[in-house]
Design a protein that fits this description.
Helices cover about 75% and strands about 0% of the residues. The chain is built from eight helices and no strands. Helix 2 packs antiparallel against helix 4, helix 3 crosses helix 4 and helix 5 runs antiparallel to helix 8.
Length: about 180
Amino acid sequence: MLIIIQSHILSYPSSNNIYYLWNIGFILILLLVTQILTGILLSCNYISDIQNAYSSVMYINRDIYIGWYFHYTHSSIVSVFMLLIYIHIGRALYYNSFKLNNTLDVSSIVILWVLIVIAFMGYVLTWGQISFWGVTVIKNILSSVPCLIEWLCGSFYVCNPTLLRFFILHFILPFSILGTSC
C-alpha cells in the first residue's frame, strides 16, 4: 500500500524549487477561516454596547465553556496572521511577481490595509481604557477629513453607535477578504 501511495505522489510533476514558503497562502486561508469561525462563535455572546461590552468579554472568558479558548485563539492568531501576510508580500516582492501582473501588488497592499483596519476594530471591541483612548486618538487623527468622523462614529465623539459600527464592520469585512482571496 505504501509503495502505491509513493508512486502516486511521485507521478505528479512539480518544480524542484518548491519549498515551505509556497504554502504560506494556503496557511493564510486556513488562519482566516479559523478567525471567521471563532469570530462567529464569539459574536453569539458579545454585546456591542459601551455599558456591556467589557462585561460580555469577561463573561465569554469566565462563564462560557471553553469561551476563553475561542477568545484567545481569535486574538492570538492575528499576530501570526499579520506576520505571515508580511512574509507573503515580501516573497512576492522578492520574486518580482508584480512584473507579471501589476494588480497583484496593489491588491495585496489593499488587503493588508483592510486587515490592519479589521484588527484595530477588533482591538476596540473589548472596550477597555486602552481601547477607548486608541479609538479616540484615531478619531482625532481622522478629524481633518470632513464628515468622516460623523459617518464613522455616528456622532462627533466615541459612543454607542461607534462601537456598534466597529462591530458590524469587524464582522463583515473578513468575509470580503475571504471572497477576494479565494
